[in-house]
Amino acid sequence: GKTSLSTATAIALADAGRRVLLVSTDAASNLDEMLGVLLSNQATPVPGAPGLSVLNIDPDAAAESYRQRVQDRMAPDTTDAERATVREQLSGACTTEIAAFDEFSGLLAGAADGFDHVVFDTAPTGHTLRLLSLPKAWSGFLRGNDRGASCLGPHSGLKMQEARFNTALATLSDAGQTTVVLVTRPDHGAIGEAARTSDELRTLGLGNQRLVINGLFRATDPGDKVAAAIEALGRQALRDMPDSLRALAQDVVPLRAFDTVGLPALRALLSDTPALPTQAARTVADLVADRPPPADYLAKLVDELAAGDRGLIMVMGKGGVGKTTIAAALALGLVQRGKSVHLSTTDPAAHLAATLGTGVPGLKVDRIDPVAETRRYVDKIMAARSPGLDEQERALLQEDLRSPCTEEVAVFHAFSRIVAVARSAFVVLDTAPTGHSLLLMDATGAYHRQTVREYEGRTSAHFVTPLMRLQDATYTRIILVTLPEVTPVSQAAALQDDLRRAQIEPLAWVVNKSILAAGTRDPLLSARLDGERAQMARIAAGLARHTYVVPWVTEAPVGVAALSALLGAAVRTTAA
């Protein structure tokens, strides 16, 4: 609920007469859909909300601007071939991250002057921690480095911006200027991630924090078992909240009966007298009420995946939709069908082990640890290059490899290794939330283009890149996970479009936590079913080739027993 709450907060501040800039740092932002405004990397006024402007740090646009600035600094006599080579060097995920970070630092360092408040709607946890750690990492790396950070090519000129990075770091660390608002649902997994995030942010020097518990539900029909179970799980999760979070200032936002799209709904989100769902939404739902979505048990998807004897299964989607749970359930289902499975994650905020709870024979569980992978990559490069270097050259190489961008390269190498494992076994990959995964896909595409260029013209050349494996539907199965809500469905559709542009076709969609499939009579939940029906209809109308629905369950899907039950949870398509 970060986007909804940050937007509602920005609107409330603007309605109170403040000048507010709302900034999205999420590569998969849907602020445009929520506000009805075309997003760009320039501040755009929001009609109907005087004083509010919105800006999106678009990684692709920022990267293109960065590439152009680098090329503009090249000598006039540079050849077209040399310019093409530099442009290709600047086409990877590392350049995209630097460019987005440069925009972010600029806003922290004064580019947002003229506004009373800047509200950042951040990307999901892992990517945001990476972004917030960069001012400290870059300012430390540049300190005393007279050569500039040139290890990978695109970083020349960063030395000139050292003052901006230091200002950004000072702003983030100043409790008088920066407040971090942690958003969680009343759910054990979400609260646990919020606690880990809080601790990591304190380590980075961002100690001025408060907590928002979003979507707190109170049942109104004591005889409704689904409603009672939802309320009970939320209460238990709050009772078990870690002391580090309990000590923070807290705000609670009740579960609302409407989707937070449009200014009226966003204003109602924080209101003491929230609006009811609009008649238009009910009309859309009525059109499809008699057409339940074609859906199967999650176990049916496992049966389809298990028909082969190996392959890569990538579980992708927006942050908070339950990718880790679905990935763990699919891996467990494959093991139960006699398969050997490697379950891993690319998410910096990984919690696969906590989801499974215990070891399972036949299931190997690990994660791509950015710190460990960076250390391994640096050791490999030093071992390969050091023998031909003198002491000073070795010191310079080590200095270059301390650049924060080295981590991106190291993570890509680890991802490539895991993709290759699927040649002889099942690999289930729980990916980072959408925006971070797209950066990884960008790196995969850049590596593919570089390989093709190197082998071009060699008649006997044969090579297979990670991208080619992802494009091979017999090798890779992409599973998109969503919730039956406007924002997650829209972002899953956008992710699918991005994948298709890379000639990667998703196999299926999994709609997680469906109250419609679970069945309920509670007035508030019943009101939400109208929106859920409309989203199911969107998916059934052509978004997904195959759809699998996971009902909301009365037991938190943590541990082998609960995940096994999730595989066989009944799909009730007749819920009214």
Radius of gyration over C-alpha positions, nearest whole angstrom: 24 Å
Separate helix tally: 24
Protein structure class: alpha/beta
Please provide the count of β strands: 14
The shape is globular
| Helicity, as a percent range | 40-55%
Ends distance? 26 Å
Percent range for β-strand residues: 5-15%
**In which order are the strands of the major sheet placed?**
10-9-11-8-12-13-14
The biggest beta sheet reads: 7 strands, parallel
Low-confidence stretches: 147-157, 278-293, 571-576
Mean of the pLDDT scores? 77
In short:
The chain is an alpha/beta fold and 576 residues long.
Write the layout of secondary structure elements.
Blueprint: H1 2-15, E1 20-24, H2 31-35, E2 44-45, E3 52-56, H3 59-72, H4 80-89, H5 93-111, E4 117-121, H6 125-142, H7 162-173, E5 180-184, H8 188-203, E6 209-216, H9 225-239, H10 243-246, E7 249-254, H11 263-269, H12 279-288, H13 298-305, E8 311-317, H14 323-336, E9 341-345, H15 352-356, E10 363-365, H16 370-385, H17 391-401, H18 405-421, E11 426-430, H19 434-455, H20 466-471, E12 476-482, H21 486-501, E13 508-514, H22 515-518, H23 523-543, E14 547-551, H24 560-567
Parallel strand pairs: 1-3, 1-4, 5-6, 6-7, 8-11, 8-12, 9-10, 9-11, 12-13, 13-14
Antiparallel strand pairs: 2-3
